[in-house]
Amino acid sequence: RCLQWFSTFPFFMQRAIAYFLLLLGLFTISAQAALVSGPMISHIDMREAKIWIQVDAPSLVRIAYSVVDDSDSLHWTPPVETNNSQANTAVLTLDKVEPGLSYSYRVELNGEIVTSPARFTSPANYHGRTTPPNFKVAVGGAHYVIEEGFEPPYQILGDGYSIFSAIAETQPNLMIWAGNTAHLRKSDWTTQSGYLKRYAMARSIPDLQPLLQSIPHYATWGGQDFGAPNGGMNSAYREIAESSFKCYWPRPVVVSQLEGVATQFRYADADFFVLDVCSYRNDTPTSSSLPQILGKEQIEWLRQALVQSEATFKIIIAGAPILNPAHSRSNLSYAEREHTDLLQMLRDARIAGLFFISGGKSYGELTRLVHANSYNLYDLTLGPLTANPGNNEDELNFFRQPGSSTFERHFAIIEFTGPEEERSLTIRIMSIEGKELWSRSISASSLQPAD
C-alpha cells in the first residue's frame, strides 16, 4: 500500500521525497560528519567539471555552483552517497559548465553548506576562433607527510609544506603530480585500510587545501604509491594499490583497453598523456623473458593517441624517467628492449611537439636526448616537493643538462606562451620559497621531425 500511495505522486515529487528520506537517514546515522579534505578540482573541461571531496563518515554530498555574479544560474549536482569502503571519498560532476566562464561553488554535506565559496574558470573555446591561450602548469614530485607513531626514530622524512602556498602564488592553471604522491611505508602497504589512511594523511595538509580547490589536479603513481619496492604486475597487493590510488586521484578519462591508471587530457594546445609505470612492470623476469615497465599494450595505446593528436605540444608524464639512460630500476632504460622500442616508435611515427615529464627521483634534472636524424627530446625530472631530497651521484646520466641538477625541495612551473606560429614552453624550477633556481625555454619549432 505504501508503494501504491508513493506511485500516485508526480515523478519530480517522488524524487524529492526519496531524496528527503535518504538525507534524513544519513543525517540520523552521521549527524556529526565533517569535511576531511578538499574540495579538490580533479578535472575541468569546456562543458564539464569534476570535483573530489572526502568526509569522515558515510554522508550525502552535493555541490551548488553558479556563474560568478549571476545567482540566477545556480545549479546543483546530483547527490552522491559516500561509503567507508572508499574512505568516504566522492567525485561530483558539474555538467552545466560552459566555456570561458568563472564559477563559484560550495559543498553541501547532509543538507548543510560546509564550505566557503571557491572559484574555478573553465577553459575558453578558442578552436577556430582565436589563437591558443597562454597558460601555466605547476609540476611536483614526491610528497611525504610526517605521521606521529609511524616515523623512524631520529629521522625527519618530510617537511616544507609551505611549498604549496608558494605554488599557489604563481597562479598556475593546473597542477601535475609526477608520482609518489603519498609515500607508503611498510605499515601501510599490506592492507586496504593502510593504503587509504596514508593517502588521507597526505591529502589533509592545511597548506594544500587552497591549491586543491582552485585549479584541477592530475596525477600518476610511482613506486612509493604502489607499495613494496619493485612491485609490479605480479604483486599480491596490486588490486588494493590501484583501487586506493583511484579513490584519491580520479582520472579525467578511463582508457578502457588498458589496465591501471593511464589517462589523458587536453588543455589549450597541449595534449597530456599520463603513463602507468607500475601495472605492467616486470623487472625480475625469467631467463626466457625480458624486463618490461610500460608493457606492449600501453606503448601501442600511446602510439595511437600521439598519432591522432593535433596539439602543438604532446606532454608525456610518467612516474619514472623516460630518457635517463642510467641502468637503474627507477628508469625506463632498465627495460632496455622496451626503451629502445619506444624511442624507435616515436622516430618512426614522426611525432612533433614531444616533451616528457617524470618523477620517481630524490633529485631534479633536465635530460636532453640528442637525435642525429630527428629533433632533440627533453625529459624534465622532478625531485621531491616535501619528501627528503637526495643527490644523483649514483647515476651516470650523460644526457643531463649542465646546471639543471636540483638537490633541494622544489617544484616546476611550465609556461606555454606565444602566438600560434611561434609557441614555446618555458621551464622554471622554483625553490620552496618560490624563488627561481634555473630556467630553460624550448620553442615548438625546435620540436619538429627532420624533413
Question: What are the main properties of this structure?
Answer:
globular; alpha+beta; 6-stranded antiparallel beta sheet; single chain; 451 residues; 6-stranded mixed beta sheet
Distance between the ends: 78 Å
Net shape: globular
Number of helices: 9
Major sheet attributes: 6 strands, antiparallel
Structural class: alpha+beta
Give the oligomer, counting copies of the same chain as homo and different chains as hetero. single chain
Low-confidence segments, ≥5 residues, pLDDT <50?
26-30
Question: How confident overall, as mean pLDDT?
Answer: 91
Query: Count the strands?
Result: 21
**Beta-strand percent range:** 25-35%
> Helices and strands, in N-to-C order?
HHEEEEEEEEEEHEHHEHHEEHEHEEEEEE
Helical residue percent? 10-25%
Summarize the SSE layout with pairings.
Layout: H1 2-7, H2 11-29, E1 35-44, E2 49-55, E3 60-67, E4 75-76, E5 80-81, E6 89-94, E7 102-109, E8 112-113, E9 118-121, E10 135-140, H3 163-169, E11 174-178, H4 192-203, H5 209-214, E12 217-220, H6 223-226, H7 238-248, E13 263-267, E14 270-274, H8 296-308, E15 313-318, H9 336-348, E16 354-358, E17 365-369, E18 377-381, E19 410-417, E20 424-431, E21 436-443
Parallel strand pairs: 10-11, 11-12, 14-15, 15-16, 16-18
Antiparallel strand pairs: 1-2, 2-6, 3-4, 3-5, 3-7, 7-8, 7-9, 10-19, 13-14, 17-18, 19-20, 20-21
Helix pairs in contact: 4-7
